[in-house]
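Next up, sample data:
>
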Amino acid sequence: MTSNSEGRGNPNEPHEQEPMDVRIDMPWGYVVGRWYGNRQVRPILALHGWLDNLGTWDKLLPLLPKHLGVLCIDLPGHGYSSKLPEGIAYHFVDYLCVILRVMEEYGWQKVSLMAHSMSAMLCFVFASLYPHRTDMLVSIDIVKTRYRKPASQIDYLRTNIEGYMVEDERFANAKRQEPPAYTYTELEQVLHKGSEYSVELENCRHILERNISRSTKFPAKFFFSRDGRCKYYTEFHTSPPFAAELARTIKNVPYCVIKGSESNFIDEQSDEVIAILRENNPHFELHEVQGTHHVHLNNAQGVAAVINPFILHHRPPHLENWTVDAADEALPEVVKEFKLAVEDSENVKRRKRKSNL
C-alpha cells in the first residue's frame, strides 16, 4: 500500500480513527505495521525492542497527544513482518534501511521516531547519520550503541555465529516440522522470565499476540512464530570514541531519553554520550521514570507524563510541516564513511530515490 501522509488530507476527516493495518513492500518480502490515530499528517514512527513487536506500545498509545498519529511497525523477523530468506543473517544495518524504506514509501523528507531498547540504539545511529532528516526522537531506556571489550567481543561473535547456524537450521526444518508447542500460560512465563522479569506477567499478552501461532498438532497449545535467528542478529558495536563522534552530530534534534529506574541499560558507559548531548544539543532531555526496561509497557502513565509535553513542544498541533532546521555542517569523517556505507548498501543511485539522502 502507498499513501502520502505529508499532505494535509481531508480537513473534515476526524483525527480519532480506528487503527489501520498497513503493509510496506520490501525487497525480501514486506514489513507490516499499524497506523494509530490521525492520518492527515506525518505520524511518529514507533520501533520496538529486540524480539518484541508493535504490541509493546499498546498501553502507551492511548495516552499520547491526539493531534499526531503513530505508525508502529514490526521489524523484519518480528511480529507479522516477513522473515529473511534461509541462509541470510539479520544485521543492524538492515534495520537502518527499513527506516529509510518506510520514509521512501510515504514520501517523508523527515521522520519523527519513538524507539525502545534495540531500536533506541538504531535511532541513535540514524539520528547521527541523518540529523537533518530527524525532527524528533524519543528513546526508551537506551541512549547509545553497545560496546564490549575486545576479549568479550570475540566470545560474543563466536557464540552469535554458532547460535545463528543452529537457528537457521531450525528455520529450514520448520517448513517440515512444527516448533515445540506450549500452553498460553507457559508462554507467558517464558516471556516473563526471558525478559529477565522486565515485562510484567499481566503485560506479556501485548507482546505474545503477534509472536505466537496456534499449533496444528496440539490445538490447545501455541509456538513462537517470530524468527529465532533474530536472537543472533549482528549488532552494531561502537568504541567509546566512535559513539562520542556519533553523539556530536546530533546537535539540533529534539531528543528525549527515558530511563527505567530499575534498569541498568543506561549506566556509566553512557555518561560520555549523555554529557556530549547535553552540551551540544539544546533540545536534549534525560528523564528517569519508575519501572523496568519495559517501563513504557508497565508504567505507561509515567512515561506519557514525560513524552507528552515533549511532543507538544516540538511537534505542536496545527504546525504540520514544522521541523527543527539542523545546521548544514559536514559530518565527522568517521561518521561520513559509515553513512556512505549504509547508502551503498541501499544502492541509492540505482534505485534513483527521490528522497534527499
Notes: The beta strands are 20-26, 29-36, 44-47, 70-73, 111-116, 134-140, 212-214, 222-224, 255-260, 284-289. Residues 20-148+238-314 form a domain with the Rossmann fold fold (CATH 3.40.50.1820). Residues 150-173 form the longest helix (24 residues). The first strand starts at residue 20 and ends at 26.
